Amino acid sequence: xxxxxxxxxxxxxxxxxxxxxxxxxxxxxxxxxxxxxxxxxxxxxxxxxxxxxxxxxxxxxxxxxxxxxxxxxxxxxxxxxxxxx
Length: 85
Hints:
Pfam families: Fer4 (PF00037). Keywords: 4Fe-4S, Electron transport, Iron, Iron-sulfur, Metal-binding, Transport. Its cofactor is [4Fe-4S] cluster. Residues 1-29 form the 4Fe-4S ferredoxin-type domain. This protein is of the alpha+beta class. Helix content is 25%, strand content 7%. The protein contains two helices and two strands, in the order ββαα. It has a two-stranded antiparallel ribbon. The radius of gyration is 12 Å and the shape is globular. The protein starts with 23 loop residues before the first strand and ends with a helix.
């Protein structure tokens, strides 16, 4: 499942640089996550890095984008292949 950033975001800028998939970007008011790029850090880390560094704990699972662990692994594979091309 992708993650999402809630309105509790304080724009502290710590989540965006730790995302290995460049899924996090500055939105109009708060940071946002591209669901098509978010793998919950599957393939990179044991835990989502944005969740680990967020001081206000505003990055839950995005229930609108359900994915199995296998789907997240496949997304990771596709994203890493894009980087090598």
